[in-house]
Every structure is written in C-alpha cells, then in structure tokens.
Amino acid sequence: MNRAIRDVVIVGGGTAGWLTAAIIAARHKARIGHDFSVTLVESPNVPIIGVGEGTWPTLRSTLKSVGISETDFFRECDAAFKQGALFAKWTTGAADDAYYHPLVLPQRFGELNLAPHWLAGTMAEAGTNGDTFCDAVCPQGRLCDAGLAPKAMTNAEFEGQANYAYHLDAGKFAPFMQRHCTEKLGVRHVLADMRRVIQDERGDIRAIETEQAGEIAGDLFVDCTGMRSLLLGETLGVPFTDCNDVLFCDTALAVQVPYPDPEAPIATHTISTAQSAGWIWDIGLPTRRGVGHVYSSRYISRDQAEAELRAYIGPAADSLAVRKIDIRSGHRELFWKNNCVAVGLAAGFLEPLEASAIVLIELSAKMIAEQMPPAREVMDIVARRYNEKTLYRWGRIIDFLKLHYVLSQRRDTAFWRDNMDPGSIPERLQELLALWRYQPPYLHEEFDRVDEVFPSASYQYVLYGMGFRSEVSQRALEPEVAAARRARRENAERTERMLAGLPRHRDLINRIKAYGLQPV
C-alpha cells in the first residue's frame, strides 16, 4: 500500500534524538502543523550516556540552520572552542613527540599542494627549516600552543578568523536542543517507556506501544535508542558488524576533572595522549576538563588502565570517581530498513579518536531531512541510496582512525606491535599507504567523492605529523617553488597577525557569556 510520509517518530532522546529532530523539523518547518509532524518519544527512566564532547566544524552550520544562537549555545552548554587535536606520544612515545591535526586547510589548498614542497625542503627559506608540516602551512597549531581563540568579539556568530568546532557538555546539550525543538520548531515531545513495537503485514513499523502514552503511530521511525537499537536491530533484525579486528579499543574510563582555579586556561584543542594499550582524551570546558582513557581490555586490565588514567591526571585524581563505558566498535549492516532508520549509537559506534560520533548524527539527519521520501512507494529507493552513502562514510572513518595506529613507530607493547599486523589493516588503507609512498595525498581520485568525511588535508596532517615520507622529485617541483615559498611567507605573516590580534580562549568565552556575539 502506498501512503504519504507525514508523521516522523523519533524513538530516543539524547544528542542523537534531539539533533535529528531539530534538523528534520527545521527543514520541514513550513509543513509542521499542516501535513507533517515530528514526534520524539523518550523514556523518563533511561539516562543519557553523554560522553562525546568533541565536534566538527559542521556543527556551526547545523546550529545556524536550525535557528540556534551561538551566544545561547555557549551560555547554556558549557561550550568551548575546538581548533583541532594534539596527538602526543603517538609516533615514538618520547616526551616531545606531538603533532597537530588542525581544522584549517593548508595555505592555498586547492590551487597548490604544499606537501611535496615541505617534504623536499623547496619551500624553506633561511631560518624556517625546522617548522613542522602544520606550522609551515597553517597558523592553527601556533594558535593552540598560545591558548588563543579562533575568533574575536568583532566576529559575528558562527564566523571566525580560523576554522573551528566546539567542545560541549553533552549532558547540557541534549536538554538545550530539546527546549529549542519543542518551543521553536514544533516538535512534539512524549515522555513514555516503550512496551513493544507493532508491525504491519509487510514488516514496516506501524506504531510503538508505550506504557504512559499508549500507541504512537508513524510513517517513518528513527531509531535513537542507543546501542541496543530496539527498532532496527532488535525488531527488524539488522545484524551488527564488528570492527574490533581493526580497532582494538573496547573500553573507556571517563572522569570529570575540576580546574584548580576558576580562571585557569582552557585548551582550545583536544589532547590525545597515547598510552600502553590505548590513549587518553583531555577536553577543556569552561567549568571542568573531561578526561578519559580509551583502551583494549585484551592488552591491559581495568586496574592498570585506571592507574594510567590517574597518573595522567595527577594528585587531583585521588578524589575523583571513574565511570566505565563499554565500546563495541562497529555498525549495523544496514542503517535504513523498511520504514526505520537508525541514527547515533543505534547505528553504531567507533572510538572517539577523531570525534566522529556527532558529525555522523548530523550527516545522517541531514540526509534524512533532505531526501525525506514523499511516499512509502519510493522509500526503499531512498533507503538503498542512504545505506550506500552511510556505509561508505563509516568505512572511511574506520580507515582514518586506523591510520593513526598504523603510522606509529612504537613497538614497546603488544598493543602497538599488533596494530601493525597487515591482517588488521583495511585493504583500502593498505593500498593508499602504498600509493602515498610515491604520491602525497591531494585532490586525486581517492578523494573525488562529495561524501568524503576527511579531506586529503587531514591525511596530510596525520601522515607528515607522524613522520611518514613520500618520495618527491625536486625537478618536477621546480615550476612551483616560487609559489610555494610565497605561500609559506603568507602563512607566516597570517600567523603573526593572528597571534597578535586574537584573545585568550577563556577571555573570549567570558565575554561571549557576558555580552553576547553579534548575530550574523
């Protein structure tokens, strides 16, 4: 039977549920209250996991598109700016082993590939030979080192002098989004525990039956029920594909660390520090740090992992409670089946090394909203296209996360040695690494899809930050040498201007909260 898609029911709240509701409702706002509705059903008894505090720059355009004020976001979500990630002790494990994966593209990226010039030394001038790849091509690593914000009060909301994302308190972000959805976007909110799922003769979900609100019917159901995936996984039987043979980390220990001083500096980047069998994240918010140890239980016990975490934090950790979170790296074989699509943890989860969880929610919700099937008759076509694109994105994120482990020179523990086993490295990544020995990643056909989640610039920052070498021909580079040197000078001048003109990170956040940013 063919029927119009008019009623979208999102089952589950949290960041996944409310961000999805906002994106769909904002896209179809003119129809809500007429021939379209968005209902979010969540249990009053299920706590939010709320660990992921890192985002991508995409969240800026997402928040803007759904009508949220950046000032309000900072005031209510304990938000801070994020300008990238610092990876410490990933390459050799030495005390001074660190590199940045920033959010700014290399100077003149798109018209000139500076990577081979940096590798060959052809863009270097007197006194500049020691620059890291990041410092040679963009200012953001220096901004992070100096603790500076990516914008000033003179920049309007969502605009900056350097590209940026956010760190946020996930426990505050979901209620913030809930209020916006229900008060501004017309989303219906139902607090009720799901009792069972009701299907029709073709296997579609016709309704969910709840304890407190009875039956709630819909035409399209979005599964945001977390790792249990009550709709797509349990009801529709879509299997889960593990990738723990590629990504070994399966546990996280998380802790909230208070600042010793309310005016202590706030890091303007995520800090990821490698450990014996995993790594520790360190994220600065205005009121606290979020710190956690992601590790593989195959190589280290919980007690050992907790000892490493507490040693990293120092004496302040003695009085802090640690929360354990199980990680099952992988995703559903399909993300959309019949009239049900999974978003967030219901679709899958990967270790948070590059903060990919929230951006996958954004990308999924935007595709659902933009390609909302007008009728059940064409939903399977939309679902097939959605599954193909989403599966590709998950695969590329897995490749990129594994890249960090594959490039490491550490051989001090079995964890790091086993990550070099070719059997644990995806075939596509192996092929690219072989290619990149002779051709630095750039705007080649390996990055020609519009749905790439990581641009070739991201691969450059990680590859050359970790000491990877690509063979380049100085003779072939000669026609571009003058342009490469100009680009390096431009970057150096831009860096100095930004270092002189941008405010301290905490100072800017305090001013935003006190005075507010100018609307766009």
Structure description:
- The chain is globular and about 70 Å long.
- Helix 1 packs parallel to helix 7 and helix 1 runs parallel beside helix 10.
- The longest helix is centred in the C-terminal third of the chain and has 28 residues.
- It has 17 helices and 21 strands.
- Among the domains are: 214 residues, 3-Layer(bba) Sandwich (FAD/NAD(P)-binding domain), CATH 3.50.50; 76 residues, D-Amino Acid Oxidase, subunit A, domain 2 (D-Amino Acid Oxidase, Chain A, domain 2, 2-Layer Sandwich).
- A hairpin with a 3-residue loop joins strand 9 and strand 10.
- The chain is α+β, with helices and mostly antiparallel strands and 520 residues long.
- 47% of the residues are buried.
- Helices cover 35% and strands 19% of the residues.
- It starts with 6 loop residues before the first strand and ends in a 5-residue tail after the last helix.
